[in-house]
Amino acid sequence: MNVLSIAHLKGGVGKTTAAVNLAYLAATSGYSVLLVDMDAQAAASYLLRLDDRFGVKAKKVAGAKKSLVEEILASDHLGLDILPASLSLRKLPVLLADGDKERMATVFKKVGKRYDLVVVDAPAGLTLESEEILRGSDLVLVPLIPSPLAIASYEKLRDFSRSHNKKVAVRAFLSMVDRRRTLHKEMCETLMNDSRRVWPVEIPYSSAVERMSSERLPLPLVQRPGRALEAYRTLWARSREQLGLGEPA
């Protein structure tokens, strides 16, 4: 079982769409996949057609004494299950303030043992919750809007992740790119030459990606082959290689 988390210091950067699309692409590649929605906004759950009333409660996650397997639901997509979020998760950082710092790693281990891959949609920001998620991850992907401020935020998150989990791999990819904007174009050209910081993957600003929220479907079911979908396929291929995933059983 491998844990892939999508994280960022702020919302609105393409974090949830990346989590849903990577989970779906992994499932269609033949892997058994669990998407864990840890964001109280429950956007990933919404995209997979689950609403707040199905979501796991913060007290159950914080307890980590019992498996949350009974909270897992099948999605509409073969090979892809989900541990859905609820608004209750907004209380999780408070509940995690006193206790075992490995609780989220324990949660992933218990709920993920039946799966080849666990994909986590982490909440925005650096809270105790995100700290524990990063601690329990094998790979952390950071969607990076091409701007100097975003790069600074990424470096802060990368350093924070490594300070709590020396074995974790932290990689960024470009997100919501609009090359008609001069700054985006210039930053992309600069960052694409710095593979130490950023994978050469560029998710374009796309109306098809926006339609995911209205149709509540992963991108491959919304868009015929196009730039955004091919970029997500490349991101999945890179992630699979980084995690060292063999051929699915």
Query: Regarding quaternary structure, how should these chains be classified?
Result: single chain
Q: What class do helices, strands and sheet pairing give? A: alpha/beta
Average pLDDT confidence is 85
- Helix fraction by DSSP (H/I, runs of at least 4): 40-55%
Please tell me the CATH architecture by its name: 3-Layer(aba) Sandwich
CATH topology: Rossmann fold
Q: Major beta sheet, specifics?
A: 8 strands, mixed
CATH superfamily: P-loop containing nucleotide triphosphate hydrolases
Strand order in space, largest sheet? 3-4-2-5-1-6-7-8
Total domain units: 1
Which outline best applies?
Answer: globular
Q: Tell me how many strands there are.
A: 8
Q: Which CATH C-level class is it?
A: Alpha Beta
| N-end to C-end Cα span | 13 Å
Enumerate how many helices there are, as a single number.
Answer: 10
Radius of gyration: 17 Å
What sequence of helices (H) and strands (E) makes up the elements? Answer: EHEHHEEHHEHEHEHEHH
Instruction: Detail the poorly predicted runs.
Output: none
Q: Strand percentage, roughly?
A: 15-25%
Explain this structure to me?
The protein has 249 residues and is of the alpha/beta class. The chain has a single domain, classed as P-loop containing nucleotide triphosphate hydrolases (Rossmann fold, 3-Layer(aba) Sandwich), CATH 3.40.50.300. It has helices at residues 15-28, 43-47, 58-63, 92-95, 103-112, 128-135, 148-164, 182-191, 207-215, 227-243, and strands at residues 2-6, 33-37, 73-74, 80-83, 117-121, 139-144, 169-177, 198-204. Strands 3-4-2-5-1-6-7-8 form an eight-stranded mixed sheet, with helices on both faces. Strand 3 (73-74) and strand 4 form a beta hairpin. The longest helix is centred in the middle third of the chain and has 17 residues, at 148-164. The radius of gyration is 17 Å and the shape is globular. It starts with a strand and ends in a 6-residue tail after the last helix.
